[in-house]
Amino acid sequence: MTVQIDAMDRKILQQLQEDASQSLDDIARKVGSSKTPVWNRIRKMREGGVIGQQTVILDPDALGLEACFFVLVRTNAHEADWQKKFLKALRSRPEVLEAHRLAGEIDYILKVRVKNARAYDEFYQALIKEVAIYNVTALLSMEEIKNTTMLPLD
């Protein structure tokens, strides 16, 4: 189902991205509409898959997860069975926040959040026990410069 998004929908989505806990009244006021049309548009966008899961954003540092690693994975196994096993291993690991299959020399990049380097090594050792990997390079993020979940709506 393809949902057509107009300027009002984009205003509503922008408000939801900024703070999804806002009341419908607040969103309606900010976008220059009333509550019922805003609710109907939100419902339509949920049903159409434009709006997915609603959640909260936690501060990893406050939770002791101070180390962020970007893990570059190269494999020499491109068979369906290997990929299925690898993807299952990634999906089962809560430390893996993001995983992307890439074009180019690197096959996958992972964003992994852990307490420290020792915790990363434990993650790494567990991963390579589950699935054979040709080459892994881990890059420690020294400083997070930008982190957002907000999509550009222009």
Verbal overview:
This protein has 154 residues and is an alpha+beta fold. The protein has 2 domains: 7-47, Winged helix-like DNA-binding domain superfamily/Winged helix DNA-binding domain (Arc Repressor Mutant, subunit A); 67-140, Alpha-Beta Plaits. 39% of the residues lie in helices and 18% in strands. It has 5 helices and 4 strands. The chain has helices at 7-18, 24-31, 35-47, 80-92, 117-130; strands at 67-74, 96-101, 108-114, 135-140. Strands 2-3-1-4 form a 4-stranded antiparallel sheet. Helix 1 packs across helix 2 (24-31) and helix 2 (24-31) packs across helix 3 (35-47). The radius of gyration is 20 Å and the shape is elongated. The two termini are 22 Å apart. The relative contact order is 0.15.
Strand elements, count: 4
What is the CATH superfamily label of the largest domain? Lrp/AsnC effector binding domain/regulation of amino acid metabolism (RAM) domain
> Radius of gyration, Cα only, in angstroms?
20 Å
Computed structural class:
alpha+beta
Strand content: 15-25%
The secondary-structure element order is HHHEHEEHE
Largest sheet: 4 strands, antiparallel
Mean pLDDT: 95
Overall helicity:
25-40%
